[in-house]
Amino acid sequence: MEKKNKIFSGGGTSVLIVEDDEFLRKVISHKLASEGFKVFEAIDAQIALQLIKKERPHLILLDLILPGIDGFGFLEMIKKDPNLGDIPVIVLSNLGQKEDQDRAMAAGAVDYLIKANFTPAEIVQKVRDAVRKNYL
Amino acid sequence: MIKATTGKSNNLDGTKAGAEACRQALAQLDHKADLIIVFSTVGYNQQEMLAGVRSISKEIPLVGCSDSGEITGEGPVSKHVAVMALSSDTIDFTIGLGTGADKDSHKAGVMAAKEIEKKAERETALFMAITEGLAENGAAIPRGIQEVFGKNFPIMGGAAGDDFLFKKTYQYYNDRVLTGAVIGLGLSGKFSFGVGVRHGWEPVGLPMKVTKAEGAKLIEINNRPALSIYEDYFGKKVEELIKKPIARMAYTYPLGMSVEGSSELLIRDVVIADEKGVITCAAEIPEGSEIRLMLGDPDKAIQAAKEAAENALSQLKGIKPKVVFVFNCMARSKLLGARKEEEIAVIQEVLGKEVPLIGFYTYGELAPMAGILGPECFSVWHNETMALMVLG
Amino acid sequence: MERSEISQKREKELQEMDRVAKMLIRRDFVLNETREKREKELEVLQKRTKELEELREALTNMLEDVEEARRKIAAEENKTRAVFISLTDGLIVFDEDKKVTLVNPRAEEILGLKERQLQGRKIKENPQFPVLSKFSQLIDRPAKWTGQKYDLNLKEPTGQFFEVTVTSVIQGKEIIGLMAILHDVSREKQIARTKTEFISIAAHQLRTPLSATKWILKMLLDGDFGPLTSKQSEFATKGYEINERMIDLVNDLLDVARIEEGKFGIEFTQQNFNEFLRETVDSFQQQADMKKIELKCNIPDVPLIAQFDSLKLQMAIANLIKNAIDYTPVRGRVRITSSIEGNAVKVAIKDTGVGIPQQQQKRIFSKFFRGDNAIRMQTEGTGLGLYLARNIVESHGGKIWFESKEGEGTAFYFTIPIKKL
């Protein structure tokens, strides 16, 4: 119950944002934080992996275009890991091709959002929906 | 000037053949033709063939007959039409017609001669006759002519043939096809001529006597039926001799009779035989004549032809031959077989290969005996003989 | 006495000579007959020889003619063969039994086999020849084996793509065989792929700054950075709207590109059409309210189960409704109705807006077209909305059309066939 409240109030829910564009990362972090989420930031897959292992976020917001291993590779990687595979991942990318969406969903993402089509507020709502769905 | 050209054709169509042959001859003649001579196989419809010739020669006087082979300067052929076109400013050609030679040969001869005598403008110097080949009595024809022109008148000619069938022969007079006719051609004017008359046959066996005869019919020889002679000689039965026209068997084995004035025997062809053993000859053999069976030899025959040509040439007395007429007995073609070309070649060797030549294989020849001209000239009926005439 | 003896002897001798003569004549006669016969035979032989000669000549002439004809044919054949060999497309000819008869050099190159290895055989799978195997899979179809175009993807072994066309070989009126033409479309494929990649990258590159601007302005407008003055709010809103337009344009462009690529596919799912339509209309309620436009729905309450792509169809309908609202002045009316016509559902979107000018009605559905009056209205529009809408409707097997009078209003209609599973 406590956990639930925590989640609802956003106080206890942590989100990892994996995004290489500094500005976008900052904006989304700000929004999430202002909504009560604990936010972890990673600029590439490597750092993201370290953070996941250390902090175990409740949800991952994942961009697809990343330096080094791209989003797909990272997604496939963590989904294979039994410890990490259960963390819900929302893909947040400007790649819009249907093939990309299908691939991401097939790889285990719970949602796919095109950045340009969603406001920060809408994104936060999607995060809340995904967390609720996954942890309740 | 005497100009002559020849043409021949064996086109399957008779009309076309006649036209082609005539066209060939006229095409080469630079002058207007005065006379057309036609010799043809009976293989063509005679009317059609003659019409074909006349379609080209039109109104030019025409004489000729059917034959057992045609002769031109290119050699002997068969189943053809041969045409000669003659043109001369020194010779007049007069033609005349006598009919009924199958019934009365003498009368036919007289008829033809009389017509020529009447029509000729100048005096006739030479008589050429083309006669029915199966006449009643061929020998009577020259006699009929002599009645009109005189006993020593030179007569040359040949009897029409029918490709060895011995059925029916034809004679041509302008545009008419006739049978039993005597066609006369009178030559008058300024020209030279020579003749040659030789056969080359030789007697074999003992002489025999004609014990019974009627004109051309031999009834008994040595008091036996005439046909028995051939029975003896050939070993063939009477029936065979009658059936297969004896003419065919016997044309190289004729009968020869000695005559005054000739070193060679005068030959008489045997034409038909009947059941009674009576042999009908091409011309008469008078009762009481001595006859012998004659045997032909190819080499001798060719030699005879050569001598005939030489005789004619000598009679021209140095004048160049301008045209040659050959009346060649069909028996000679049978005797010589594949060598008949040699016979003509040898004549041409003597007289000149380029000299225009026309002739045919006859069932009889008319010619002066032994080829003698002049006051001693006596023209009679021959068989198996090479009779040739040269104009110059 | 002697004389008669001599003459008697003589007589006997003469008789003997006569007998001999008769014998000789007989022999001569026989000889002559034989000779005659021989000569006749010789004549026949000569005639026959002449005929044979003539025949030989005729045959020689004929042979020459035949030879001439043969040479011509050979020359033609050589020409044809030259064409066959030089053809830059692969060509395989089959007989009526699907056995290979001819393989041109280019085909040999593609399949990795020589003509003589294939002649007289059917095309079969062979692990040694992967290209041949792929080709055989392609042509081993139960469908009518001619007139078809197939895609042969040889990306695996050789990195090439081929378009295979199969047609019948006809002689006169008979089909005497089949031929497969292998046309290299690797370059085209490559170009298409490059285009796709380009578009994908371009979209991504365009969207990145656009989404940054969108988020910033939205957060600003939401007051995340503190309250705004009304003026600040006004201009920030304007900036946001302009930015949204850019995002729309990029999205539309991507869709158009996909249509051109042939990748704009329809995914049919079975849904309640009426409910879907109502939801879509409802989503515009707010927008209509802002302009005081009466947004009326005339959609039957009955569920209408049909097969359609809700995502795409929503895009199309949204375009139509948005247009209706945008081009209708304040206090106008927009009405949406749905009815059944035959075995299709017909939707009408009517407005009391500015209408479409007569001369421009023809170009309404073309890309980037905007009516002059629309531009004058200063409304936002990419000019791609109707192009996409038409594509979507037609991809469903439906029709789209409109009626419009300038100054009075416009009515857009479209049908969607009710596909049942």
Automatic annotation (TrEMBL), chain A:
4-aspartylphosphate: residues bearing it: D63
User: Which keywords does the record carry?
Assistant: Phosphoprotein
> Domain named Response regulatory: which ranges?
14-131
Query: Which ranges form a coiled coil?
Result: none
A Gene Ontology biological process in which this protein takes part is: phosphorelay signal transduction system
Q: Which PROSITE patterns match?
A: RESPONSE_REGULATORY
SMART domains registered for this protein in UniProt = REC
InterPro entries named in the record: Bact_response_regulator, CheY-like_superfamily, Sig_transdc_resp-reg_receiver
Q: What PANTHER family does this protein's entry cite?
A: RESPONSE REGULATORY DOMAIN-CONTAINING PROTEIN, STRESS RESPONSE REGULATOR PROTEIN 1
What is the name listed in the Swiss-Prot or TrEMBL entry for this protein? Response regulator
Organism for this UniProt entry: Candidatus Tagabacteria bacterium CG09_land_8_20_14_0_10_41_14
UniProtKB/TrEMBL annotation, chain B:
**Where does this protein have coiled-coil stretches?**
none
Q: Which residues form the FIST C-domain domain?
A: 226-369
Annotated ranges, domain FIST: 32-225
Question: Where on the tree of life does the source sit, at the highest rank?
Answer: Bacteria
| Name the record gives this protein | FIST domain-containing protein
What species was this sequence derived from? Candidatus Tagabacteria bacterium CG09_land_8_20_14_0_10_41_14
Upper taxonomic lineage = Bacteria, Candidatus Tagaibacteriota
